[in-house]
Amino acid sequence: HIKHTIPGAKDSKVIVSGGSYGGFLTTVLKMNHPEVFFGAIPYAPPLRSIGANYQNPRRYDWFNWVYWDLSAAAATKMRDAFTLLAKRFQNLGEVEDIAKDLNLCTVSKTAADLQLVMGVIATNAQLIPLLSYSSPDANPYGATPEKMVNISLSAKNPIDIVNATLTLRNPPNLVPCISWDSDDSSEASLQKAPFNYLLCKYFPLSSNEILDGNIYPPTSVQTESDPMTCETLYKIVPPTQAEVEAKWHISTADLIQAPRIIFAYAENDPTTGVGIHPFPPSPDRNASRWMITSQAAHGEESIASFSGDKPSVVHARRVQLETIKEWLGLY
Fold this sequence. Notes:
By secondary structure, the chain is mainly alpha-helical. The protein folds into 2 domains: 2-50 and 241-327, Rossmann fold; 58-184 and 207-220, CATH 1.20.120.980. The protein has 13 helices and 6 strands. Strands 1-2 form a two-stranded parallel sheet. A two-stranded antiparallel ribbon has the order 3-4. Keywords: Glycoprotein, Hydrolase, Protease, Signal.
């Protein structure tokens, strides 16, 4: 449509881009329609944790590394605080005190309830680095892993560290209590049931298990794409990682052979843990490549620029722009 309606665009080459799930779609579009899309920049595409048979713990492993890399002392205090909380969760006699200490909207009365609470905490925790944008429009509360580190280092009580995980993204003046048992999504325009159906059918991302050795206790944050959930609730058998790779031609071998794709990941983004691995270096500037932006959040280079952008993000945008110019033969 654009080529036929914009003067001078008829013979222009098309570069496609998108972030997160849009990064997955960007990759699929470029790989399956090379005659249409000359180049592509998928930002933070989660390409390696798809399918109920392929639970990939690397998202929370990466999250873990973010904090250990920033401050081993803070990460140790965070780990100890959540180890203590996990022990408290084993005693149902403490549920009233737990609800009070965590400012929960309702009391979690069963072991299953407490597992949901831990899932809410872990989800909020990984969103702090994932969404740590410099732009106040994208990160209105200014939550960053650096703030979490500073709070942890100065905390006198372990519960203060746990609460910071929740309040950095849910300020008490705006969120009077923490909801853990709601069926509503945190996004006003998103309903969980239809979204989970779509996950099961088309994109069963399985990346929310936390294993031993993490700052946070072993936790199953969500099970929307587990076989039992998909089959029981929606009568759907989700595709496997191998099936998705074969159907859309996104195996590692496929991607390495395809020209003109920049897979853009970020240091603070746990999604990097479930993305593709770096490619072998190539002297061919049209070869597809993998890049990572230091201290950046989830697809941060792809959002609108502003005066306070991180220098690393500004640099990454410049690298991507210059690469596109080379693709187009401007140099």
